């Protein structure tokens, strides 16, 4: 029996510069043989289409177990994030230095609340 998660050993991140820098310093950075990075730095100049493209690419990769995304970045592509239903990579919305976490906006938490009500 093959498991769909056995080769998933990377974290991926879409977030602001401070979040990405901290996580890269913690050792999550990876560039694969096709020169694809497992992170996207989002700033005020980053187009929504670029964020959506990175989200799509990272959620389709078979080597990523968890995709971390700053919640304020997830808000920019909220319909796409809310439609994402796959177990792998797991999607986790995280706070950033300038934007605190709001459980009311978290797509995973909203889904859990629907299931429990």
TrEMBL record:
InterPro entries: ATPase_V1-cplx_f_g_su (IPR008218), ATPase_V1-cplx_fsu_euk (IPR005772), ATPase_V1_fsu_sf (IPR036906). It is a peripheral membrane protein. One of its GO terms (molecular function) is proton-transporting ATPase activity, rotational mechanism. Gene3D superfamilies: ATPase, V1 complex, subunit F (3.40.50.10580). Residues 95-109 have a biased composition (Basic and acidic residues). GO terms for cellular component: fungal-type vacuole membrane; proton-transporting V-type ATPase, V1 domain. It comes from the Eukaryota. Keywords: Hydrogen ion transport, Ion transport, Membrane, Transport, Vacuole. It is found in: Vacuole membrane. Residues 93-117 are annotated as: Disordered. NCBIfam families: V_ATP_synt_F. Belongs to the V-ATPase F subunit family. V-ATPase is a heteromultimeric enzyme composed of a peripheral catalytic V1 complex (components A to H) attached to an integral membrane V0 proton pore complex (components: a, c, c', c'', d, e, f and VOA1). Subunit of the V1 complex of vacuolar(H+)-ATPase (V-ATPase), a multisubunit enzyme composed of a peripheral complex (V1) that hydrolyzes ATP and a membrane integral complex (V0) that translocates protons. V-ATPase is responsible for acidifying and maintaining the pH of intracellular compartments. This is V-type proton ATPase subunit F.
């Amino acid at each position: 029996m093959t498991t769909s998660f056995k080769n998933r050993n990377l974290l991926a991140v879409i977030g602001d510069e401070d979040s990405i820098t901290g996580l890269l310093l913690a050792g999550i950075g990876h560039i694969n043989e096709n020169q694809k990075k497992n992170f996207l730095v989002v700033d005020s100049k980053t187009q929504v289409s670029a964020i959506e493209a990175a989200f799509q690419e990272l959620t389709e990769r078979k080597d990523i177990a968890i995709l971390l995304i700053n919640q304020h970045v997830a808000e920019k592509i909220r319909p796409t994030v809310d439609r994402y239903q796959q177990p792998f990579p797991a999607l986790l919305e995280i706070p950033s230095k300038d934007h605190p976490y709001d459980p009311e906006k978290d797509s995973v938490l909203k889904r859990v609340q629907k299931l429990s009500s």
